[in-house]
Amino acid sequence: MIDIPAIREQFPVLHQEVNGHPLVYFDNAATTQKPQRVIDALLHYYRFDNSNIHRGVHTLADRATDGFEQTRELAAKFINAAEKEEVIFTKGTTEGINLVAHSFGRSMLHPGDEVIISAMEHHSNIVPWQMICEERGALLKVIPVTENGELILEEYARQLGPKTKMVALVHVSNTLGTVNPVRKITEMAHQAGAKVLIDAAQSVGHLPVDVQEIDCDFLVFSAHKIYGPTGVGVLYGKRAELEALPPYQGGGSMIRDVRFEKTTYNDIPYKFEAGTPTIGEVIAFKPAIEFINELGKPAIHSHEDELFRQAREGLQSIPGVRLVGQAAEASGIVSFLLEKTHLFDTGMLLDARGIAIRTGHHCTQPLMERFGIEGTCRASFAVYNTKEEVDYFLESVEKIATR
Ligand code: C6P
Prior knowledge:
Layout: H1 4-9, E1 17-18, E2 21-22, E3 24-25, H2 36-49, H3 59-78, E4 87-90, H4 93-108, E5 114-118, H5 127-136, E6 139-143, H6 153-159, E7 164-170, H7 182-191, E8 195-199, H8 211-214, E9 218-222, E10 233-237, H9 239-244, E11 255-258, E12 263-265, H10 279-295, H11 297-316, E13 321-324, E14 333-338, H12 343-352, E15 355-356, E16 358-360, H13 365-371, E17 376-380, H14 387-401
Parallel strand pairs: 3-15, 5-6, 5-7, 7-8, 8-9
Antiparallel strand pairs: 1-2, 4-10, 9-10, 11-12, 13-14, 14-17, 16-17
Helix pairs in contact: 2-10, 3-10, 4-5, 11-14
Bound molecules: ligand C6P.
């Protein structure tokens, strides 16, 4: 059992009123709130340790470099990477996918090759692949989804073949909450000789994610969605895969030796970390992972799953509410529409009651097209949310739906 009031105490932002009501923050899939220890770590860095990393020999440079590398070590353990060099810091999930699409595409994709994504991808796992496929003359294939919001795996099996070079797939859909069977999908891709990238933006803070168990070649996520600062992401890659890829950007830190005739590149992970990174934010990401580790993913998941089920079942029983996506395996995210109220009005009416949800297409326009809708209202949960908040949310939705 986890102590929710004690957890809430650690999040100063939660203790405020919005429009005359206590804030109910259900927009966690967009970004989570930050515990005091993350805010403190960021302030501490700028107050005492501010310095560039991997460059200086002075004390502040040492402290900053140590803090930065300690986060890398913890992030590697967090996803069970075999070694810390397999963790590359990026700006976020989006940059991680662009890095792989660009580097992999430029070196490994040839005319006629194929890349498979799914119909429930976030734009950040669609557009980079579209761009590189167009550039390299490769074909982009899309795994369709059922009315329930589940992948049609028979179709995926048919799409896979000797031309498939990459399968890039979301672990948990940010719009539907569907949990995809990434281990099985990876195994099938590997049997066809393709590499696999998993977008773990919506899973890594909520479900156990073990890169060696999934056996994916690449995995990406953002710190800001798991209680950490913005401007930090992780790209995991198997050592052999990262070593085989050319660098994404050129600049300081990513080189071994620069001559006008020829430049040689640094080892991983530095080969992919050109320029000065978001140092303080990476350092402040460590206490966010520690926060999750202290609670444990099983306890976090079990609490969030209770809230999710309460919300999904509650919404289902309100007349005039339509759920969008009802996958058997789903996690922490529920999308819905009201028959008589436009989704933006629903969002505004809930905000007037202090409840923050997200409305719109959630950067999944092709998925919205699949369901024939312009967007949804989306409630997404984090470990600090409570059963009482879900009760209040359901009561508010019912009021709006039956106006
Ligand atoms: N989804 C949401 O409200 P960045 O912006 O790089 O941190 O993450 C992009 C991204 C990639 N994949 C998935 C599955 C995501 O959910 C997101 C971000 C937010 O759903 C903002 S659009």
